[in-house]
Structure formats: C-alpha cells, structure tokens
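Hi everyone,

Forwarding the result from last night's run.
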Amino acid sequence: MPEGPEIRRAADKIQRAIAGEIASDVFFAFDRLKPYEDKLVGRTVTAVKPYGKALVTSFDNGLAVYSHNQLYGIWVTCKPNAVPPTRRQLRFAVQTSRRWALLYSASDIEVLSTDAVPNHPYIAKLGPDTLDAALTPADIEARTLSAPFRRRQFATMLLDQGFLGGIGNYLRTEILYVARIHPAQRPVDCTLEQIAAFAEAALALPQQSYRHSGITNDLELAAQLKASGYRRREYRHWAFGRVGQPCHRCGTPIAKLMIGGRRCYICPQCQPLG
C-alpha cells in the first residue's frame, strides 16, 4: 500500500498536471458516482491535496473527490490520448487540454462537498502528518507518551492512522530500526533516549522518503551500494524486505516478524526485546 510519502509525491505530480485547468472530461467507474461526471466537466481543478494515505481533488464548484489508493491503487498522469498500456482497471479520471490524471485499481472513491472534507471519517481521525513541516520531535514525544498511546505496542500503534498519519508497513519497520526499538515494545517500556530517537526518526524518515523517492537508508550508504551494483530493493531500506541480509550497523542477519498479519523486519541485535 502506498504510504504518506508516495501519496504526497502523487499529489505533487497531479497538482502540476491539472491544478488550475478546466476539466474537459471526467470519468467514474462506479455507477453511484456517474451523476457527478456532468457536474465536474467544465469546472476548474483548484487543488490536489494529500491527507495521510488519501488524496482529495477539489473543483471550483464546491465539490471534491476523495480517493484512497488502498493496496493496489496507482495514479498516472499523461498527455492527452497518450495513456500508457496497462491491465489495470480505470476507476477515476480527470482530463484537461494539457494533461490527464488517471486513478487505477482503487475502489475507495467518494464525491463530497469541500466543506465536508475535514469531517470525512478517515480524514477526521487522522493524527498529525509526519510530512507537516510544523510538526516537531517534541510534539511526537509528547503524543507517544500521552495516555491514549503510551501502553500500546509500537507495532500496532504505528499502523494506526490516528496516531501519526501516513505511516505504513515499510516506514514502521524503518522508524523502529533507526530508533533501536523492538516492535513489541511499548512507549512505557522505553527509555527517554529511545523515545527521543523514535520521535526524530518518525519525522526524518518519512521526510527523507518523500524527498528521495522512497529511500530510507542512509543516503551516503545507499549511493555507495548503488554504485557497487546493488539493486534498488537491496539499497533502499535499512531493514524492510532484507530478511537474512546483514544489518548495515552490526552485521547480524535481519529477521522477519509477522505481527497482526503484517510483516515487520528487525535486527535482533540492535532491537532486543526488553
């Protein structure tokens, strides 16, 4: 599933492609949304904004399209009549004279008024966005140690969008690895130094991933590995997806855990339980 950095990059791309442009055609795959096609044709796209793992495309008539990519959704932008070949199903499209924005495979799509966007059930429950430049490590420390979260396992808490918006499976692994915290630990089990390291990583890694196309590993190390012929999946992350490969810090083989049906990767040496 795309996480916050991927959705933010998609929003940037779509914003550049269609914001400020008049929709010459709009397509919805779902019958319940078909009546909105005519209401959006001829209207100007005013903004494309990410909300955690969701995205909202707003128009100048007070309507907005909420979409969540879920596991398989993907956005594509292209020149008119230059749609790249794909076997995916088109679910939502905005066509302008300059560029087209196409959403494939996603099924969580709604049309609502722009005034209702903050009250959408997903958006209303979102925690602070780790890509928000105004958010500080001190904010995250305080939230982590607050009553609603301090006795929850990091493994489940980090996938709760009400804790921090936009964090998913790979960012969960990478944040806990950098902070040297085992996924089964709780904030109350950690030292203040670990909580501080967690807060720093919870901001730094999503922001680095956003700026550097998904790379969460040390950037210098990633560049060295790439130059040495390693594939992207081998140099992209500190731990995620690297089961059996040596930890970049201590050389211990990375282990894979299944927690709540979701995979998580740790270094047993750097992230001991207890």
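The longest helix spans residues 192-211.

Cheers,
N.
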